[in-house]
Specification:
The protein has one domain (4-266): Ribokinase (UDP-N-acetylmuramoyl-L-alanine:D-glutamate ligase), CATH 3.40.1190.20. 37% of the residues lie in helices and 22% in strands. The protein has nine helices and nine strands. It has helices spanning 18-28, 56-67, 83-95, 121-128, 139-146, 154-165, 211-222, 229-245, 261-266, and strands at residues 4-10, 32-44, 47-53, 74-77, 101-103, 134-135, 171-175, 183-190, 193-201. Strand 2 (32-44) and strand 3 (47-53) form a beta hairpin. Helix 3 packs parallel to helix 4 (121-128). Bound molecules: adenosine-5'-triphosphate and (4-amino-2-methylpyrimidin-5-yl)methyl dihydrogen phosphate (MP5). The site of adenosine-5'-triphosphate (ATP) has 21 residues, from strand 8, helix 7 and helix 8.
Length: 268
């Protein structure tokens, strides 16, 4: 059986993050990829120069057009720009009863540029988080969602993940990529299963553009093919680590380059 995986996100012309990264991960992991574009972003490995938001009504039009035709087996949600777009996406999750909803609460690109309006964090917290089967915040996003300081160690990550779970998502994957050390550790917390610590070797590379997009998309692609969320998340993390290990083989741009999707797949 084939699986249709939808990305609702913004673009990256350099192909390392956003919808372009999502499609690469879906394809490499055996999903049929589809997209609803929320924002056109002029960005590359060195940063964002301009953002052109797609009007919320046209995001709705893309969703309605697609979802009245095609069955969706999992959804990855990335950059949503503003409150209106968040409301449209939340309404579509309900109206079409979308399954396996993975929300990557994208707020700020690695370059420091904002991808979500500051006044839209509240809508993300109240409208989208409770509709998510899994959320995948990094440490600054977790802090922003909770209105707290950033976690500085694994113990603080654990207590923040618990408070994020209380905001309504079925599961939380809190990513520790922004901490330092020999390993890069994430925490998976859910209401109905024991907490899991996912540890991987910290790959020595500056080519980390789109790691968050890749991880959340890999989970969405794998979830319909695996019996549990835990299994999908663990394999997605392995996939990302492999893609990071081969990132330096690519020659893309002068800044933080992308991870290597297809090599990651060949390595499996
Ligand atoms: N150098 C690295 N080596 C191995 N894994 C890493 C490295 N950097 C990040 N990761 C992993 O990549 C995933 C994304 O991590 P991170 O916390 O950096 O998220 P992010 O900031 O959302 O990514 P992005 O900036 O692309 O949105 C996590 O699983 C994290 O553990
Ligand atoms: C459209 C879009 N979505 C998400 C990210 C975050 O990825 P990163 O933090 O690695 O730049 C991005 N840069 N662009």
């Amino acid at each position: 059986m084939s699986h249709n995986i939808l990305s609702i996100a913004g673009t990256d012309p350099s192909g390392g993050a956003g919808i372009q990264a999502d499609l690469k991960a879906f394809s490499a992991l055996g999903g049929y990829g589809m997209t609803v574009v929320t924002a056109l972003v002029a960005q590359t490995t060195t940063g964002v120069s301009e953002v052109h938001d797609v009007p919320a009504a046209f995001v709705r039009s893309q969703l309605d057009t697609l979802l009245t035709d095609v069955r969706v087996d999992a959804v990855k949600i990335g950059m949503l720009s503003n409150t209106e777009v968040i409301e449209v996406v939340a309404a579509a999750i309900d109206a079409y009863d979308l399954p396996n909803v993975v929300v990557d609460p994208v707020m700020v690109a690695k370059s420091g540029d904002r991808l979500l309006a500051a006044d839209a964090v509240e809508a993300l917290r109240t409208e989208l988080l409770p509709r998510a089967d899994l959320i995948t915040p990094n440490l600054p996003e977790a802090a922003d969602l909770l209105g707290e300081a950033e976690a500085a160690d694994e113990a603080q990550m654990r207590s923040q993940a618990e408070r994020l779970l209380a905001l309504g998502p079925r599961r939380v994957l809190l990513k520790g990529g922004h901490l330092s050390g020999a390993t890069s550790t994430d925490l998976l917390l859910s209401a109905d299963a024991p907490a899991e610590v996912l540890t991987a070797e910290r790959v020595s590379t500056t080519n980390t553009h789109g790691t968050g997009c890749t991880l959340s998309s890999a989970v969405a692609a794998l979830r319909p093919q695996r019996p549990t969320w835990s299994q999908a998340v663990r394999e997605a993390k392995d996939y990302l680590t492999e893609a990071l290990r081969h990132a330096d083989e690519l020659e893309v741009g002068k800044g933080k380059g992308p991870v290597h999707h297809f090599h990651a797949w060949w390595g499996r």
